[in-house]
Amino acid sequence: MKPNDILTLDILFVGDDGDGIATLGTKTIYVANALPGERVRAVVVDVAKTYAHAVMVAILRCTRSSRTPFCPHCKDCGGCQIQRMDYRAQLSIKRNIVIDSLKSAGVITEDDFVPGVMGCKYQFGFRNKAIFPVAKNTDGEIVAGFYERRSHNIVPIKECRIGINENITIINAIIGHLRIYDIEPYDEATHTGLVRYVMIRKAFDTNQIMVSIVINGDSLPHHNVLIDKLLTITKKRIKSVSLTVNCDNTNRIRGNEVINLYGDGYITEIIDGIKYRISPLAFFQVNTPQTQNLYRLVSDFAALTGNETVFDLYCGVGTIGLFLARNARKVIGVESIAQAVDDAKYNAAINSIYNADFYEGKAEEIIPDLINNQGINADVVIVDPPRKGCDKVLIDSIIKMRPKRLVYVSCDPKSLARDLRILHDNGFKTKYVQPVDMFPHTVHIETVAFIVPLV
Ligand SMILES: C[S@@+](CC[C@H](N)C(=O)[O-])C[C@H]1O[C@@H](n2cnc3c(N)ncnc32)[C@H](O)[C@@H]1O
129-271, what's its fold? Predict the structure, then answer.
């Protein structure tokens, strides 16, 4: 097999990054946008020893779940990988991803253990945050958009239906500003240039918008002109404009320091009556409408009576902990990003929640200290780690503490399965899991697991 070969392929399943997967001889072939059940004609673009990538040029046999892509950038953009699949089929694929991960770790034996995925009521306009990389294209024009699949080439975006309406207007205004004042975008190859990314985030309940421009420097020329422009085009819905300083010579997006240019430096979202201040560096779930359902599910599993001490680990701006605090005796949140911890403390105060404390640091360092040196234990533990899952030291502490209930919110079925395996090997069992779709049209899936100690 070599580049430019034309193949006829039967797509068997969807891979981790959303590509359709076929096999030919001993090779695995990844075909972007191709769906399981389809027979496609595809041109080989690159070949490695055990696999190859190919681009679909024709669909020779359709599946019943296929539909016309809704996005004009579908072919190139690396997002919304399974948008050619109708929503019901997307949910079914995601359930299978959870089943496969849990089965291969030996956490479950029966498919029936995993119920259907809790789908999203809104499959468009649900995403409250977008990060647009900025660069020069090969013609020397400044562009912003999303990365192509498996590359750092930018696909300039004219439309993105999963995001908020204001995204494109705001990004165009920022690109216009860079062009007028000859401000250089960042160049990854030479580590020169100023503007790296633009993050836009919106609080759906309050309609407030935040813009943070990630820069390789410490100031943006003529920023006041840009702020006036942004306020005008959004009819003053922008409540915060800031610069995030990131001078690292890496692909990392988030900087460490925020320079506030306009507003108080945050926006406020409201979920189930609780107000959450969100600062530029803090994590917040990207699908606002579905977040309420996610937290209600966590609350159901936590089954609080008012007498429990709850650990909310990897707590972000205190979201889950404050959601639960109304029914708990005490909540203790732990989060590694300082700005998010400040938000969490502030959020407790503005919601008149006095039974929640928040600690800044790594959960795997703070929790052993609380348990071993301060004698603080939890009846109920909530963990909501990043994709890599929980640190082993933290899991060992939880095993030793033996809480009555553990609720694990996971955005990666593989790391969830690994961590559940460890818990199962150490006297715990998973009673229920519930996949929740926070990311329609992608292969990503959130799963909430409810775990109890064996008696
Ligand atoms: C998936 S987010 C969950 C946030 C929050 N529970 C929510 O629903 O908004 C994971 C959070 O863990 C934080 N984090 C990452 N590693 C950590 C660690 N070792 N200890 C504590 N927090 C960590 C991240 O900064 C992020 O805020």
Answer: OB fold (Dihydrolipoamide Acetyltransferase, E2P) (2.40.50)
448 CB near ligand 1 (under 6 Å): no
| Spatial distance between the Cα atoms of 437 and 29, rounded to a whole number of angstroms | 27
For residues 240 and 260, give the distance between their C-alpha atoms in angstroms, rounded to a whole number. 8
The number of the ligand 1 atom at minimal distance from the alpha carbon of 283 is: 27
CA distance to 17, 181, 278, 449, per residue, from 326 (Å): 39, 51, 21, 22
**CATH for the stretch 6-63:** 2.40.50.140
Residue 414 exposure: Cα atoms within 13 Å on the Cβ side: 5
276 Cβ inside 6 Å of ligand 1: no
Identify the CA nearest to 427 among candidates 396, 399, 394.
399
- Please check whether residue 313 is in contact with residue 367, taking contact to mean a CB–CB distance below 8 angstroms: yes
Domain with CATH 2.40.50.140 in the chain: 6-63
pTM greater than 0.85 (yes/no)? yes
> Is the Cα torsion angle 335, 337, 340, 345 positive or negative in sign?
positive
- Residue 235 is predicted with a pLDDT of 85
**What is the residue with the minimal CA distance to atom 9 of ligand 1?**
284
75 has pLDDT over 90: no
The pLDDT value recorded for residue 16 is 84
Taking 90 as the threshold, does the pLDDT of residue 236 lie above it? no
Q: Measured in angstroms, how far is the CA atom of residue 364 from the centroid of ligand 1?
A: 12
**Residue 340: both structure tokens together:** 């998010």
Q: Is the CB of 337 within 6 Å of ligand 1? A: yes
At 150, is the pLDDT very low, low, confident or very high (cuts 50, 70, 90)?
A: confident
